[in-house]
Amino acid sequence: MTAPPLTWLYAPGDRPHVVAKALVAGADVVVIDLEDGVAPDRKEYARTATAELLTEPQPVPVHVRVNALGGPPAAADLRALAALPGLSGLRLPKVTSPEQIIHVADHLARTDGGAPPLYALLETALAVEHAHAIASAHPALRGVSLGETDLRADLGVRDDAGLDWSRSRVIVAARAAGLAPPPQSVHPDIRDLEGLTASCAHGRTLGFLGRAAIHPRQLPVIERAYLPTEKELEEAEKIIKAATTNQGAQALPNGTFIDAAVVATAQRTLSLARRN
Asked: Which residue in 129, 139, 71 sits closest to 97, CA to CA?
């Protein structure tokens, strides 16, 4: 079982020196941003610089967040980047319908011989309502996640707890579509590591796996929050050992009941632990 990524580090595409630092910062995935992190008059430069970088394979997987679908900048982004050897995925912002995913995937399949892995960002109430339809829209779609800054504005939510229903809906939609659990949205205050820790702990209880970051100092906090604890590892090892020794449902001496679902959870726990 391959361990999934836990950290996704954003870097603005119009600042190649920041992207270069991001590539060696220790993130599992680097996301080069061509959308909100780039001023309108810098988008062409960001696209050109990103395309130049991705003509070669990179030391870590690199995704690109293109501009919002439907406009000329997004079309130019897709034309310039989709077939490059250094690209590991395209992140599509402001997705609101499955038709958008199908259109992009089919267009790239026709023009480049196959769509790269696609990831949909759900950032509005309408997107959350359509979460499962989007998540199951096309085989090229490999993941969905929330864009909480935009969603917060759309919903008029001020208290962080007001987003929990939307978070759970997207997590359930992803799993129902056979996708990996989504990563959490970014924690915008790069100095607030204590708040980031608490937020990650809460996200883990909801079913998120990993988190996007906007600064390298957030990476170890996120990884630590989402890696199994020693107690979780010990329990997982006991479950796997018991399941290997005796087939079928059973109970451990501490009363833990073991069946196929419990074993699968233990296997995922051990897979995460082995990433180090």
From this structure: 129
DSSP letters, 180-235, are: PPPPBPP-S-TT-HHHHHHHHHHHHHHT--SEEESSGGGHHHHHHHHSPPHHHHHH
Q: Using CA atoms, how far apart are residues 276 and 265, in angstroms rounded to an integer?
A: 19
Q: What CA–CA distance (Å, rounded) separates 134 from 127?
A: 8
Q: Is the pTM of this model over 0.85?
A: yes
Query: What pLDDT is stored for residue 224 in this prediction?
Result: 95
Pick from 45, 65, 47, 23: nearest CA to 150 = 65
Alpha-carbon distances of 12 from 37, 49, 199, 239, rounded to whole Å: 6, 11, 24, 44
Predicted pLDDT at 168: 98
CA distance 242 to 254: 12
pLDDT at 229: 86
Domains of the chain: 7-226 (3.20.20.60), 230-273 (no CATH)
Longest dimension (CA), the chain: 65
Amino acid letter at 146?
Answer: L
Establish how many alpha carbons lie within 13 A of residue 220's alpha carbon, considering only the half-sphere containing its beta carbon. 2
Question: 171-214 pLDDT, tens per residue?
Answer: 999 999 999 999 999 999 999 999 999 999 999 999 999 999 99
Q: What is the pLDDT of residues 47-72, one digit of tens each?
A: 999 999 999 999 999 999 999 998 99
